[in-house]
């Protein structure tokens, strides 16, 4: 499972998509205006790993 941050080039709406593997064309659709002209902001894969880390493990 990976999360991708996308930005719609049509309306500027920023949204996230959750996919099992790689981002496919069918996933690149703006939920707000249905535009397929969206771009990827950045890969949040590493960020997600950090967020899912159990609290209190390390840094103690
Ligand atoms: Zn849009």
Number of helices: 1
Order of helices and strands: EEEH
Bound molecules: zinc ion
Outline the low-pLDDT stretches. none
How many strand units?
3
Shape: elongated
Which percent band covers the strand fraction? 25-35%
CATH overall fold name? Rubrerythrin, domain 2
| CATH architecture name | Single Sheet
- Which whole number gives the mean pLDDT? 81
What is the CA-CA span between the terminal residues?
29 Å
CATH class: Mainly Beta
Radius of gyration: 14 Å
Q: Could you say which structural class the secondary elements and strand pairing correspond to?
A: mainly beta
Largest sheet: 3 strands, antiparallel
Major β-sheet strand ordering: 2-1-3
How many domains in all? 1
* Helical proportion, percent range: 10-25%
Describe the structure.
The chain has a three-stranded antiparallel sheet with strand order 2-1-3. It is mostly beta strands and about 60 residues long. It is built from one helix and three strands. Helices cover about 10% and strands about 30% of the residues. It has one domain: Rubrerythrin, domain 2. The chain starts with a strand and ends in a 9-residue tail after the last helix. The mean pLDDT is about 80. Bound molecules: zinc ion (ZN). Zinc ion (ZN) binds next to loops.
